[in-house]
Amino acid sequence: MILLIECLIAIVLFSAIVVPMTARDPLGVISDYPPAIRKRCEELGLTKGREKRFETKDLIRKGIAIIVLVLVAALVMIKVNHAQGFLEGFGYTYIIWLSITWFDALVLDCGWFCHSKRVRIPGTEDMKEYHDYLFHIKQSCIGTLLGLPACLIVGLAVMLLA
Q1: pTM of the model
Q2: Could you tell me the pLDDT band of residue 107, with boundaries at 50, 70 and 90?
Q3: N or C, which end of the chain has less CB nearby within 10 Å?
Q4: Domain residues of the chain, as ranges?
Q5: What are the angstrom distances between the C-alpha of 25 and each of 20, 52, 106?
Q6: Helix-helix angle 86-103:133-161, to 10 degrees
Q7: Are 39 and 123 in contact (CB under 8 A)?
């Protein structure tokens, strides 16, 4: 039951960060948009051309978020869940990670992003890529894998500190 509550809290916190940030300034999170939309934004002069999908500031922002996640998760696993070893620390954290990742894919991306006019960037409103569900599912599969290293670190922290 505690794990379910933690998943729900994590989803609410994630949504409270992502939704306002995206709605307020879609161009601020352009690196998370489908490639064709990013390209059109470059052609319209709304963004500058990029050699890489993520600029240094994007990687720093995401890196800080992962570091904070790892620290908070390790603390929660030890103090709230009373995790006693690597497998409990890793497993519980990965379940929470998966709940956030797939909520993001199915509800925020395929539900909200694909259907809300609030995330449309002027000059790209006509693009069918706003309804590219497969793009979001593929990104979540990648996110599922990206969570492994962070959750492994939490598992190690639990093993060493609990």
Answers
A1: 0.86
A2: very high
A3: N
A4: 2-161
A5: 8, 21, 22
A6: 160
A7: no
